[in-house]
Amino acid sequence: MGFIKGFFKTLAMLYVSAYILTTSAAIIDNRFISKEKIEDSVNNLHVHNFNINIDDEKNYLTLSGECHIYTKQEYEVAKSIVNKHRHFAAECGSDVMENITSGNLMYCLVAGITYKPYLYFFQLGSDRHYDTISELAEEKGYFIHALEDPDDPFDNLSFSERCQFLGDIIASAFVAPIGYFRGKYEAPLDASAVANYRFKNSLITKRDSVMAENIIKLLSEDEIDSLSANIGLAHLDGVINNLHKLADIVEVK
User: Fold this and answer.
1) Residue 3: which residues within 8 A CB-CB, separation 6 or more?
2) Which of 52, 177, 182, 209 could lock onto 22 through a cystine, CB 3.0 to 4.6 A?
3) Please, what sign has the CA dihedral across residues 226, 228, 231, 233?
4) Closest CA to 144 of 224, 99, 90
């Protein structure tokens, strides 16, 4: 018993030492080594423009696949998009906190708080702290329409998947400093990167079709003939494929 206790004590000490060393390396790198890296931040904001014919009426859609937190380069693109539009939509819209159920709100809060340490280091390394399209639009007083019910991302998960998903987030807190280096060496992404994601059906595929349907519904409204919709980059290909099934759409290069 004494040997097992000593073994786990040694493991705990090694873990704490590694955590402190990795944190120190991240802070030193950020303060003294990588000051000039910001200008070379990767651009993972993918913007597509479409003409969409609905009931013989031509409509215009700017569809942006995003990482939900922006680099300076992505922020500049976002400003130009906001300046061109008056109607905006995003996954859960402006009223997410008012419409989500209490159980899912609690799950979301626990997941969000637990993810903060990893996210802090990732943002420190990637310089992702600029306003998004939705945030810029709201600052100008525009309402953000919801492309899905705020409960959808959670209700699509089975109980087992909820536990696994939350477990992944909790695990990220234990290796949070590594997020700095993942952010610093962030690679360009594309929607195909989620092909083997284990929650793909629940968190991506099911939601893609719902968001595409709601984009068409919004563009069918009399007062909306031009719309900017920003969605997670993982949804981009799926939403575009579903839009092709629902309407006559042509990409504008």
Assistant:
1) none
2) 177
3) positive
4) 90
pTM: 0.88
Measured CA to CA, the distance from residue 191 to residue 109 in angstroms comes to 27
In 85-146, alpha helices (H): 96-99, 102-126, 133-139
| Bridge partners, residue 252, by sequence | 49
Radius of gyration of the chain (CA): 21
What span, in angstroms and rounded, lies between the C-alpha atoms of 122 and 71?
12
Q: H or E segment at 193?
A: none
Q: Angle of helix 159-174 relative to helix 102-126, nearest 10 degrees?
A: 30
Token pair belonging to 2: 């004494």
**Residues near 140 by beta carbon (within 8 Å), at least 6 away in sequence:** 82
CA distance 100 to 112: 15
pLDDT tens digit sequence for 132-172: 999 999 999 999 999 998 888 888 999 999 999 999 999 99
